[in-house]
Amino acid sequence: MSKQLAKWDSVGILLTYWCNAACAHCYENSSPRCRHTMSLDQVRDCLRQLRQLGCKGAALHFAGGEPFYDYGLLIDSFRAARDELLLPLGKLETNAFWCTDDDLVRQRLTEIRDLGLIELLISSDVFHQEFIPIERVQRAVRIGREVLGDQGVRVRSSEFLQNPIDPTTLTNEQRDDAFRCALIQREERMLGRAARALSHLVDRHPKEAFANTDCHREILLTRHFHIDPYGHIFPCVCAGLILGNVKTADLATFHETFNCDERPVSRTLIDHGPLPLFEEALRHGLQEDPAGYASQCHLCYEARTFFRRQGMYPDEIGPDEIYAAD
């Protein structure tokens, strides 16, 4: 079985961990307390390395957190991408929290369109709408389609937007029911805040249920990766599992020379899955949850969270934002 990283063909640059919301399903654990944001020099360096790696603009996206947190940085990041011949950008994500006024939305989206954007991805679901009025999402979609065209705007999830509910009017029991329905319609990664806020709403299993799983495909075979505001490189579905850092090795060199045998957490996950990690955490004092675990990702996240708080494997598990308790 090959231990080489697959050829990457798409990349997400997480400009910030800040978000106005603290959504229950957020696998990155973003919130208003998470202030760390990339500097423009970091963005430029990432984009330069991505161009040298052979990435195309259509395979890149800016995300967060919420990338509209610092609109000046966002626009400067588009300009930096233009300088590296990486426009039009494939995708820009937002929760539309900033869409408070028609003129503001039109002005910003026109500026972004003129720089070069293929798709604006707008989040809309029962989790986001705990924090963002649905009217702002509707405004973003309406004006986004006016400026970018129908094919230039995608809503996740469009079904919810067509029949929205306001979770702020629900009792706790009603909200949990709404969350359960959402989880049936779309499975969420039980990492970050989702592990704490949603895992009790789905079926859970004893740790032994994950004995015959491994994470070879998720870590080595993924063709999509993320770069966070600290420069950490994550597999796309494994927020908080650090494979390397763009500050210590350029992406091309990192990709060619990655050796999982030098990274014990990644090596264990690739070869044996999360159960051995979890059992190691138990030996160091982690308390097993008698209710069980929702998925192998949930089991892995609980072990990694314990290690992070114990100061173990700091080069592979981080940053604090992803593992912090609310």
From TrEMBL:
Q: Spell out the SUPFAM superfamilies in the cross-references.
A: Radical SAM enzymes
PANTHER family recorded for this chain?
Answer: PQQA PEPTIDE CYCLASE, RADICAL SAM DOMAIN PROTEIN
* Xref: Gene3D superfamilies: Aldolase class I
The Radical SAM core domain is annotated at 14-141
| Pfam families, alphabetized | Radical_SAM
Its transmembrane ranges are: none
The scientific name of the source species is marine sediment metagenome
Q: Which InterPro entries match?
A: Aldolase_TIM, Radical_SAM_PqqE_MftC-like, rSAM, rSAM_sf
- Molecular function terms in GO for this entry? catalytic activity; iron-sulfur cluster binding; metal ion binding
Protein name, per record: Radical SAM core domain-containing protein
Enumerate the UniProt keywords alphabetically: Iron, Iron-sulfur, Metal-binding, S-adenosyl-L-methionine
Keyword Iron in annotation: yes
